[in-house]
């Protein structure tokens, strides 16, 4: 009998990744593809589903399937950025580029409109989250108002993972977790669509069937097999949003577990056994039945460091080395990392980046460290909000590309005063996709042991004490500059309209 393996593919904001994994968690092969994200207007962030999502999937599948080398591919799991809005026709053909998650802030007016229509308290009670740029509902209302010709042709509400599932199996299905981020269309306590509100927000739009991320929802069709090289009839699980797949991949499954995902944005997932709505966070279904999560997300993190590296034309390793020699506090610099507005816990799409304390004596090393520290203060702010909601963080698990090199994770531990565990594999959501497929098909061997912790980052008490003094000023800096930031955000929009 041929050895069984599992395939996981994830579509991220800036790149896509895939892994071929043995049923005991050993990685046999891995592949990745970079791609572009479109920013057609300030506050708009989009992906083309065909040229980004499906093209990346095809390339990854065609590279990884031959690596099975005679082994039987027993299951396929997929994930992607989310929540996103991809309107499609009755055949699943995209009608416009996908409107991405909370970094896309175009639906500000619709957020206010729907909040007034349904009531902030009732939205939070029913859906677990206040409406924000993360929610899909306001973006559906925006589509209906601003692109009515597209909305009238829309017959499918797709996200990244459900788009891939539809292309592969023909099924129109969405996982419960992703659905729970379609506020205000989903009732978190009932674990079902809110039919009354859905008809008011998305009139006439057929909503997808619901499933859990581990459920096998279909099999690869003959047409999809011919396109991808996948075996016809291969079981495909429902998939989910990338952050929840990644949390699964690193064992964040028990109450009090928190995943910190270091990437283009910083994302947090904390597991709960009961629902704890908080207006500054997102309450959602977990990846597994009978679980909930508190989630948080910063609008930028790695995006800021990438921007800064481009400005100084610096090598990443050299910048990290030089920044590591700068003392905690960056010699008196303080940065607000709100370069694309901010999501949790302030929900302000018009917030802007601020660098305070700058003098001619500061160089690129101080600037780079200040950026890492600013993101670290943002992490502390979000963890504090989780604590206020009753979601005490008992264990932090760090994942993502930002865990490489050591400086960034050390700064975050120093600022928060908390240890971070780093698992053996931080390949990302694709690894979690393979695990979810293994659970769904019953082929995963000892899934709890797939990804053991191999390193722990511990805070430096002296640095923590110094950062404690900075954190209060970090919180004050936003309040002190918010009116100026909002004015400048308006000026940026006006300049874009003139251009």
TrEMBL record:
- Please list the GO biological process terms of this entry: D-xylose metabolic process
Tell me the protein's name: Sugar kinase
User: Keywords of this protein's UniProt record, alphabetized?
Assistant: Carbohydrate metabolism, Kinase, Transferase, Xylose metabolism
Concerning Gene3D superfamilies, the annotation shows: 3.30.420.40
Among the GO molecular function terms of this UniProt record, one is: phosphotransferase activity, alcohol group as acceptor
The Carbohydrate kinase FGGY C-terminal domain extends over: 259-439
Query: What family does this belong to?
Result: Belongs to the FGGY kinase family.
Question: Which Pfam families does the entry mention?
Answer: FGGY_C (PF02782), FGGY_N (PF00370)
InterPro entries xrefs: ATPase_NBD, Carb_kinase_FGGY, Carb_kinase_FGGY_CS, FGGY_C, FGGY_Carb_Kinase, FGGY_N
Where the record annotates domain Carbohydrate kinase FGGY N-terminal, the positions are 6-244
């Amino acid at each position: 009998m041929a050895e069984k393996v599992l395939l996981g593919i994830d579509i991220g904001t800036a790149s896509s990744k895939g892994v071929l994994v043995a049923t005991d968690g050993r990685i046999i092969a891995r592949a990745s593809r970079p791609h572009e994200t479109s920013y057609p207007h300030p506050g708009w962030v989009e992906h083309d589903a065909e040229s980004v999502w499906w093209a990346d999937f095809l390339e990854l599948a065609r590279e990884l399937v031959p690596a099975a080398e005679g082994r039987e591919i027993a299951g396929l799991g997929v994930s992607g950025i989310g929540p996103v809005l991809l309107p499609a026709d009755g055949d699943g053909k995209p009608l416009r580029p996908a409107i991405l998650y909370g970094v896309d802030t175009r639906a500000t007016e619709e957020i206010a409109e729907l909040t007034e229509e349904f009531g902030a308290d009732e939205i939070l009670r029913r859906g677990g989250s206040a409406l924000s740029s993360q929610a899909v509902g306001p973006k559906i209302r925006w589509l209906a108002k601003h692109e009515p010709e597209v909305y009238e042709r829309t017959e499918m509400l797709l996200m990244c993972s459900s788009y891939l599932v539809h292309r592969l199996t023909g099924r129109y299905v969405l996982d419960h977790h992703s659905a729970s981020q379609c506020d205000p269309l989903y009732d978190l306590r009932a674990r079902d669509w809110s039919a009354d509100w859905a008809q008011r927000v998305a009139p006439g739009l057929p909503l997808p069937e619901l499933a859990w991320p581990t459920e096998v929802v279909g099999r690869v069709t003959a047409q999809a097999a011919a396109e991808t090289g996948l075996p016809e009839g291969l079981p495909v699980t429902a998939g989910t949003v990338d952050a929840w797949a990644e949390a699964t991949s690193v064992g964040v499954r028990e109450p009090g577990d928190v995943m910190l995902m270091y990437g283009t944005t910083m994302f947090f997932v904390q597991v709960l056994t009961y629902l704890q709505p908080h207006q500054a966070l997102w309450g959602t279904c977990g990846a597994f039945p009978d679980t909930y999560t508190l989630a948080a997300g910063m609008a930028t993190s790695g995006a800021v460091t990438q921007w800064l590296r481009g400005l100084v034309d610096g090598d990443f390793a050299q910048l990290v080395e030089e920044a590591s020699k700068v003392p905690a506090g960056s010699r008196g610099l303080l940065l607000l990392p709100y370069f694309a507005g901010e999501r949790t816990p302030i929900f302000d799409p018009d917030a802007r980046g601020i660098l305070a304390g700058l003098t001619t004596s500061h160089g690129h090393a101080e600037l780079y460290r200040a950026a890492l520290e600013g993101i670290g203060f943002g992490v502390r702010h979000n963890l504090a909000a989780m604590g206020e909601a009753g979601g005490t963080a008992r264990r932090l698990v760090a994942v993502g590309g930002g865990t490489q090199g050591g400086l960034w994770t050390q700064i975050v531990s120093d600022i928060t005063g908390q240890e971070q565990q780093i698992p053996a594999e931080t390949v990302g959501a694709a690894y979690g996709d393979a695990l979810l497929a293994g659970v769904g098909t019953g082929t995963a061997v000892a899934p709890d042991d797939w990804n053991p912790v191999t390193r722990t980052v511990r805070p430096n008490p002296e640095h923590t004490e110094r950062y404690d003094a900075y954190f209060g000023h970090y919180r004050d800096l936003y309040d002190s500059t918010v009116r100026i930031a909002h004015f400048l955000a308006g000026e940026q929009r006006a300049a874009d309209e003139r251009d």
